[in-house]
Amino acid sequence: MPDLTDLTLLQAVEALRRGDTSSRELVSACLERIERLEPQLHCFLALTTGSALERAAEADRRLAGWRDDPQQELPPLLGVPLAVKDVLCVAGVPCTSGSRILEDFVPPYNATAVERLLQAGAILLGKTNTDEFAMGSSTENSAYGVTHNPWDLERVPGGSSGGSAAAVAARCVPAALGTDTGGSVRQPASFCGVTGIKPSYGRVSRYGLVAYGSSLDVVGVLARDAADTRAVFNIIAGHDPLDATSLDLPGGEAAFSVESQTAGRLLEGLRIGVPEEYFIGGLQGEVESAVREAIRVLEQYGARAQAVSLPHTEYALPVYYLIAPAEASANLARYDGIRYGPRIAAERLGDIYRRTRGEKFGAEVKRRIMLGTYALSAGYYDAYYGQAQKVRTLIRRDFESAFEDVDVIAAPVAPTTAFKIGEHADDPLAMYLEDIFTLPANLAGLPGLAFPVGFDSQGLPVGMQLMGAHFQEELLFRIAQAYQQVTSWHTHRPELEPA
Amino acid sequence: MTTGSGDIIPLMALTPEEVDHIAALARLELSAEEKDRFRQQLSAILDYFSQLQALDTADIPPTASVMAAIGAPRPDQPRPGLSLDELLSNAPQVSDDQFRVPPVLE
After folding, report:
1. Do A369 and A328 meet the contact criterion of CB atoms below 8 Å apart?
2. pTM value?
3. CA spacing 20 to 30 A to B24: which of A247, A260, B36, B92?
4. Tens digits of residue pLDDT in A356-393
5. What is the predicted ipTM?
6. What is the rounded distance in angstroms from the CA atom of residue A308 to the CA atom of residue A476?
7. Which of residues 15-44 of B touch A (CB under 8 A)?
8. How far apart are CA A359 and CA A87, in angstroms?
9. How many CB atoms lie within 10 A of CB A352?
């Protein structure tokens, strides 16, 4: 039997149905790998070993019944292990959001995205590490320690969904949920050499997601390839009456239709926009050449690349880092030591708020609350927050006009490959600059798909992102699946053998 | 202060008093060392962000949400929610089925 942890999600679904393996074997293999690798990687903040093994046994009973009577309807992910970023609520499992201010918080309900995965038969193995409240690009802002990049343990996995990305890259789980407010699915996917979807705003319910920037936050998926990512996305996408911003759109195409079309057939006539503003000074040469080579591959199979301009790209960083902190300063007002989380005792109510927040929030969270509070404060609102909202309109219009000429936009995910732990420790602005290529899609609410297109000379993965018009996730998946049919970057695995 | 038509806001470093004011608004107790560090870092960040002021946005409407119209609200009907026990299960202090806090009025 080959190493079970090497199966992709769709291969695991097949293997379980055929009876080649059992859910219990598969879940145990993943849990053993997690246990072996956690000391070096630290992907997880909580494991749900007991309930996972129980659910696996139940899935095996159901699979056995199905093999006797294949007419039965079987949940699409029955018996398959997954992980969830620790900003999404799972009933009865601690949800820290990477923060001390939620160190003892146990949600009494499931996030809708989690509920849908459980209904689909998936088995949750644990909660993955994240920058505190998803604010960061490296997981270094987690109150519970940094996650290490499986390709080079001295480097960050990216963030904020770094625990999910590293866990998928290291074959601890075949897929994991992440969230993306300014690049937090795509950038760690890129740094860890996995595939990650940031869905359109409104496509996936945020009910049960710990809120950061509410006009930007989306729930996404990280997996080993585009087909797996698409399968999980199709399960979590859709309208939810519990989230007023989730749209009632027709469902995704059948999640498990086998892609039988050739790359040439999938890409023929596709118009790919290449935005000059994303190929600028500061872009690592090896990242640029890998991305340009990937575009050439798509052209070889019938796509046509053409230059497009997104002239307000350079403003995305200040716009994002005014709007997201402003929204965060309001969203995080709820953490006051009264209804949940720890309380620093004081005689006066106001002192409880101030001391609890001052002691339990980490530095980056406090910095963003301060920045957002300032941007919203009397006398500065128009100059900062108001102006940022107007420039956000200009960024949206850039995309609208580009999508009149092209079907999809291809660009690097991040200016560099994974950086070293501690490299940006004392320079928040340098850290923010890591996000320059991922922020625009969030500001415009557009879908973005990141996937590996090569390695740099140090053996670190390079990612490319495809951005589409609203709700064009299916197109992005098709292009990436076509690319992955004719290339093998997504199949490389990091060498990780613990001593 | 006006904006939106290319007016340049005179930039200056945040003062210690401004940092105190923001921290008070945000209900954050900060150490002297934190205040000093945030003053320097936020000043540098805001200085970098001043590039936004150069854009003429006089006729540009703001974007608060990318959703042009949010779908119809769901019917206003009671539906089951969390139980009282569940709601109070994470509270640091509870008494008589309520969140317990110190006196607000003295």
Report:
1. yes
2. 0.95
3. B92
4. 999 999 999 999 999 999 999 999 999 999 999 999 99
5. 0.91
6. 18
7. 18-19, 21-23, 25-30, 34, 38, 41-42, 44
8. 20
9. 22
